[in-house]
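Researcher: I'd like a structural prediction for the single chain below. Treat it as a standalone chain; there are no partners to consider.
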Amino acid sequence: MTSLPPLRRATAPAGHAPVRVPTITPAGTVEIDPWWGTIQPQALHPDLPTWGELEVIAHLGAGGAAVDTRRPEYVAASGTLPGARVIPWEEAVDRCDEIDPDAVTVLFCNGPQCAATPRAVAALLEHGRDPRSLAYYRGGLQDWVGLGLPTVAAG
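Model: Treating it as a single chain, here is the predicted structure.
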C-alpha cells in the first residue's frame, strides 16, 4: 500500500481578495469564500464541548446564551444568530461579566477557519473561566447561513 502525499490546503487564485462572511446571492444560494483564515481545531479544551447546529438551536430554543465573538464590521455585514450578544474576541475578558459563569454560553464566529472564538475562549480560560460554562460552535456563520438558518441584525 502506498501512502498519500501530505494534504495541503489549496491556495487562492492570484489577486483574490478574501471575503470573511457568507453572502446570500440574488438566486438564493450562499457564497462562501474558502480562501481566508486558518483552519481551527475541532476541540478547544477537553472540558469544553464543540457543538453543531442542532445543539445550538436547542440551546437557543431553551433560552440559552450565545456570544458572537466577531468584530462589529463582520456582524454588520452578515447579521448574527437570533438572540446572540456581540462581544468581539478582543473584549472577551474586559466584558466577561456579561457572560454568566453559572450557565453554558455558546461562542461562535465566522466559521471553521476563523480564529476569533478560539482566541476569546483562550483568553477567558486564562482569566479563570470554567470551561464547562462555555461551548464552541465551530461552524459559525459560515455553516449557519450555508444551512439556510436565519440571521438577525445585531441589537
